[in-house]
Amino acid sequence: VTATNCILQDVQVHLVNREMWHAFSNLGTEMIITRIGRRLFPTLEISLSGLDSDGRYIIKADITAADNHRYKYIPASGWVPVQNGNHAVITSHNSNVSFGTYEHPDSPNTGKFWMKANSISFKKMKLSNDKSCKTKGCIILNSMRKYQPRIHIMRIDAPNLGSRIAVFPETRFFAVTSYQNVQVTKLKIQNNPFAKAFRDSNSQLT
Amino acid sequence: VTATNCILQDVQVHLVNREMWHAFSNLGTEMIITRIGRRLFPTLEISLSGLDSDGRYIIKADITAADNHRYKYIPASGWVPVQNGNHAVITSHNSNVSFGTYEHPDSPNTGKFWMKANSISFKKMKLSNDKSCKTKGCIILNSMRKYQPRIHIMRIDAPNLGSRIAVFPETRFFAVTSYQNVQVTKLKIQNNPFAKAFRDSNSQLT
DNA sequence: ATGTTTCCACCTAGGTGAAAACTT
DNA sequence: AAGTTTTCACCTAGGTGGAAACAT
């Protein structure tokens, strides 16, 4: 095992639906968390290159704290950290601590399999605020905090072949129990097929 | 590795919905095969015991020929082998040759995981008659032939730990492109939730 | 004649945000 | 006041057998 293998140096991770994420990120992305678990929208969708065709890999997503603040949403100002007197409240939320992991259901699989996919979708991944939530693929978060998803590529066809973590800043989001920014709600309705019922016929996208 | 391990001697495989299969088997079970793939009904549903809690296992289903005949359905007689003059036509269909394998989507997993499940369901497994069918989990069969599903339990946490094959004769079925025996159709409609639209309100089950 | 393919109405299953009720 | 939970109409997504068209 060489140092090169240990970090999977040649592996490239691409965020397929980067433009969609970017549109939400500009507004401050919000994701609903519920007792039974709710999907993310947009979905995490990646593609991979630079894997060893014959190697075996597990692909996972996890979610870390983006910072250690608690936030509130003020319509005129947007998302601002909660202040206690003159300084921001620092909580025990540490970045690099994972709040839960979702293994892609096609894992484990060969490098060839992962690379030939146009899109590796984490659409069944769900978010909850209930610690006792047993829904499959559910990650437990706290409301009114900011989170950062990550993608893990782990080679497993021999011990200690290493892994790689990819972080896309445009996928950061606030966990909420109901939407705060009405612009976010509108963008969800316009783009999520399951929210089609709420689309205003005057402002339909082609 | 002992001889005992090699055949996973203590492993018990139980057909959870045996009664449903039996009801169909009495009539001569038929399964529709289509270009895009069609689920089996009843679904293969098993439970397992006698696994090593800490071992890792792959659970698969596959389908073999039940015999080497071609069949036709005669309403007055039922399913009879096609005759050529006075003797049955013998084809190249050999039992013990698998026509396709469907790996349970939770594979691989621990003995503990598999044993704690009340029902390990192969409901996403599909049957097709189109060799070029790329639908995930699709097994290619020939129409008007008799088939025998099998369950495979393979231990994989070390090389050559062996495997076990379980065969339930009540799960034998005829592959068809449209139902032949109207009694089979009726039993499907009464028991498959997706066929509820065709239930006669006079003969509903409670 | 016999078997196959395509299309369809009618279901199951489950993912949306809205709104009202609830909690603290 | 601020945030959470529940319920709901309205969608997407996809599994049924029937019937008509098609193939050989």
UniProtKB/TrEMBL annotation, chains A, B:
It is found in: Nucleus. Residues 15-200 form the T-box domain. This is T-box domain-containing protein. The lineage of its organism: Eukaryota, Metazoa, Placozoa, Uniplacotomia, Trichoplacea. The chain holds residues 78 to 283 of 447 of the full protein.
